[in-house]
């Protein structure tokens, strides 16, 4: 019986003969969309199973002990990470973006199944994060490893990872158009027929998978009863401004809390501090428990009492301003609870918490407008939806995703204009204040972020080690001119000579132009030394810290044709401008977003 490897080889030969590359990519997009959708369905079912078990035993008991559950879930994740996975949990979208920019779209096999275990434990036990990020991560890892198995090239592998992401999102929200737009906005794809059709097929495959396994069960059981009114435009503008500033708060709080948790070197201390902080917040604000879809649905139904649940402030909920204050409290503390969950070692995403925060803010703003005493009356459910769009547009920098996601959730486009107003204002405020998002900030600092700027994207995809040249003859400072000419100049095809000390550290350079006038003057051979001839290069390229954009800038600023590369002072070689530009042109030709 032939081995699996032999069968795979036979299949690949058959595929090369009978299926064109274009058709194969389209077929693969359907497959990865289905597998990513299946991963998303598995995540949802495991999480809801854990939640249902806990609700029967604890959450709805007379003792209301649910606030201790997050620390239990975080402990289980910690034990799995330490003894089974043996690798720290990375954030979903940033790890995928890093893979696309610097790792040729390669994701480890463990990233296929680890999110399916750690995310349900985190969210099922009440961690205040979402499932979208883990679903996308699992789907992307499945696509990456399947592509590697089938010998798919790097460009196509990257496209199929984006397809898997679209399939996962489409499966969770049952919103195929928003899923495609998310892949375009977040993964910086260009909308061409080469990318749109696979994304469309993957998105359809993902949503059909969701319908097959979950039926018509939707995250939001909501139908619009009130459409757009021109009189409400000023309030949508106010909401856009509010969600813009809330997005800035959300993002800054995220990085501030992660910075705080870095003080704790041991994961155990992070777990303890994070778990206690989440438990305290849950005791006073129960809607922070878990993902928060129940909270959003109750707000959409106009039932803010069910949305808020049982709190220490129940005796005061007859006062609408107490309700408004609690909603604003959820807006503020959702960002804290979510980040504390992730910083403490939990697994989850930020997209759904963003929606929860936006729904609370939108509903609170509508209640303020309706109860301020000026006779205004706006739809609280509409503002709840539009608040979600405003936060997504601001926090993720994905305004089109926000607009189409909410439009698909509501089953129509009656709110399209207010979604555009609020989403665009929020995005503009946040983008002009914070250049990068939660997903992209650290990658941008490392020079590993792909963007829609094609020139910058090509530079990001380039690797420094690919353009380093080492065929330069080194010389020592104590060499005399005669020895230099005999041992280096006569044997070199280059016109630049690095000067190295005994530890291979670079101390300067000598150019052929520096010695051309007197290199045949034998009287100077014994009396002139390299240390007298050498000088500093116009600039150094630092291997550990300089990205390709910085390298290109150094060539531009220095006007040099060759620059040395050093790693902690140790000489590694030179980069020439001609080779750099040649490599850039080749990458640009082969670049497919």
From TrEMBL:
Keywords attached to this entry: CBS domain, Chloride, Chloride channel, Ion channel, Ion transport, Membrane, Transmembrane, Transmembrane helix, Transport
One Pfam family cited in the UniProt record for this chain: CBS
Membrane topology: Multi-pass membrane protein
Protein name as it appears in the record: Chloride channel protein
Domain CBS: 468-527, 534-592
Localization per record: Membrane
Transmembrane segment boundaries: 23-43, 63-81, 112-136, 156-184, 191-213, 233-250, 271-289, 320-337, 344-365, 385-406, 413-430
Domain of life: Bacteria
